[in-house]
Here is the input.
Amino acid sequence: MSVYRRGKDQRFVFDFQVGGQRFTGNTGSANRREAQKVEDKARERARLEVTAARAGGDRPMTVGMATSRYWDEVGQHHKAADTTLHDLLELEKRFGAETPLTAINNDAVARAVAARRQETVRGRETVRDPTNPKLKIPAPKVTAATVNRSLTEVLQKVMTRAQKAWSVALPGMPTWKTHILKEPAERVREVRPDEEATLESAVREDYQPVLNFGRESGLRPAECLLRKSQVDLKAGRVTVTGKGGKLINQPITSVMRAILVAEISKLENTTAFVFTYRALRARKGEGGWVAGALRPITKSGLKTMWRRARYRKDEPSIPADLRYYDATRHDFATKLLRESKNLKLVQKALHHAKIETTLRYAHVLDEEVAAGMEAAAQARKKSRRKSRKRVKRAA
Here is the structure.
């Protein structure tokens, strides 16, 4: 059954059956298209739960049975459960739901990794080269990190749980370290002084406040998409749920306060969110809006804005090697460390659980060491000149 509304409630609900079991729920959305997506995910979850419930007996465990049981016991409780669900379903498609788990050996994993590496980033298409319309820029291939996170590591978790928690005999368990792709060290890039003006002119005016807030707070892009209820101007703090479900209480500086007050006080901003953009086009249908309406800025909206700012024609564009993350969080951390020379302080400001994560910014301290060594060398050189002059005078 498709999504529908009950009574006066504008939000859509779903009601369907899988394997003779009935599943109902509220999608939480008044937009039919978004509600349909929620129902589709609910159907997939329901199928996994029913399959997991039926698994058992003397039948050899298959990939489908393993992913279903893993979802039922572990996956559905992850913070990013939707991502886990997607990855588990992809495992079923890639290896076959009816394939015995014992058939997943080193050769099968190596072939799957090789095929995954040839795939392109989801949602990215081949585009025209802005400098030469006759040429096309191919869609980028998925990174080594994406292959590791979405395929190899997920499969390893499922098979390891099957072996250790469910006592499934897997004599051909893959040697996982041979399939984990080498990931390049994360590059730390900050905004150079000569790029400040370009950054300001290339980014849409209605996206400037959220960009500036990210640069001042050091919060991750998704963490900056605040609801008004998360901002306590009186206490001088914003409260967000960060990576890994960690609760973050970020102090509000004077610059951050000015940005927040300006955005919250917008008379047209009747949404529950702090940062909004003005829609350039109308959207028809239920839950649509008119051109010029204020809409909450989303994570996908930030990506689209940044991509367009990078490929502007006949105007200053953002450098191709400068990512949104670089211009906000990395820039914040690098400049804070350069100013404070205190890694522990930067660790706390970035809410890193381990100091090792913060050490990626240690190149700033290396610059200070190099500068100190150079100053010491110049001082010794100057001291030697004075010493020679004294010797000559004495002679």
In short: The beta strands are 4-5, 12-18, 21-26, 127-129, 132-137, 231-232, 237-241, 247-251, 276-278, 294-296.
